[in-house]
Amino acid sequence: MPALDNRTRMIFIVLLTVSTAIISFLAGLNLKQIIAITLFGFKTYATLLFWRFRLGFAFLAISILLAVGVIDIPHTIEFASFDVILFLISMMTVTGFLEEDGFFERLMNKMINAIGFQAKRLMIFMMLTASLFAALVDEVTSILFMTAMMLQITGKHRLNPIPFVMMLVFATNIGSSATVIGNPVGVLIAFKGGFSFSDFIRWATPISILALILTIFISMKIFSGDIREMNEALSLGSEASLGEEKETTLSKIYSMEASLDKNIEEVESYKHKTVSWVLFIGTILLLALHHPLEELFHLERNTLLLGTAMASAAAALLIDLERGREIIERRVDWRTLIYFALLFASVGTLQYVGVTGRLAEALLYVSGGSEVGLLLSFTPIAAVLSAFMDNVLAVAMFAPIIQSLGAEGVYTFPLWWSILFTGTFFGNLTLIGSTANIVAAGMLERERRARITFLEWIKKGAIVSIPTLAMAILLIYLQIPIMPK
Hints:
Helix content: over 70%
Largest sheet: none
Number of strands: 0
């Protein structure tokens, strides 16, 4: 697909923005609603066509909304969802500390030493690990770590890295749906829908596990030729390695290049190794137990979800005061977090002026108000937006619509889980559907100069995303009778 020049992109943005304004007018929206949805459209189109400058366009959209009086400063701050932002900052800090300590590198090296030179077994193991890391840490950390490992393996054996990295991305996005901390989508749903860590374990994790099994099965089929090629290369590489240098070990072959500034002796002797384990396990346990603890101490829902993340971040920073500033500056993705805050504010504006209420009424009309009708009408729209607009953007847009449906007396419990799986599973469809996809594609271009096209990704992404989402929606539907009322 040929790249568009900047002038053509600007023309597309103008045409799409004007079309949005015209459609809004014809739909009978009032002036503030037209301005809000037109600026939201403008920001979305500009983000898609000028991804690197998305933060500037987000600032521009909010500044215009404030200037024309569509929204005021207090509501802008309220809609920016700083509880979500604070949670993400805290978890990025904890993850950054563990990465700096070499925690994930040590863990992965020990795990991969037990796998051997069998390609299918290796890929299944790495997909399971990518999914687990995404669920327990977050999707970005998982894909950064797993892609770096895969690039080293494929680089050493002169294999095309694209199919193997795609498999890891698919598993990462699926795994990120299993817990509240795996994906910004889950964090947003937890805070907007009022769900706890244990709610995710009950309603999201089982479906995520089944979807991961299906994803692995599909991947083994559609990438079978690449796996056979890897198996041959690994076998030849193993024999050559043993013949050339007897003292070479598997751990040396697959030692991570991501830590060039640290030697192996420093990592292994690092005095905070035990502390890292305590911090990691303690954070996960407290997040898992936050809901019963809140009930025990009569705290508001999700108070300890945020409190645990912040306390763990404090511990990470206080354990190593000298590196604290570096972790905050380098490991926390401030650019993305600011974009999320501005995104949430612009979506909140749609709710503030009544656009989401109108959309909720339209969905109710189309679905006839039935639970099945809402699932069937809601899911395809959210899926397309997740795949082609970014899943966080899509979920941020639909969260207030679900809240509006709830205010109308609609039973929304299954819709929250539907939007979770729609955002994460259909994020696999396109190259821009999820942050993990974009990060992995960037690493492919930067590290191995292997570039994947939009169409090439969709061909494989559709085979994975469509059946996994269909299975998830079916399982949600089957569980509606036992869901809490």
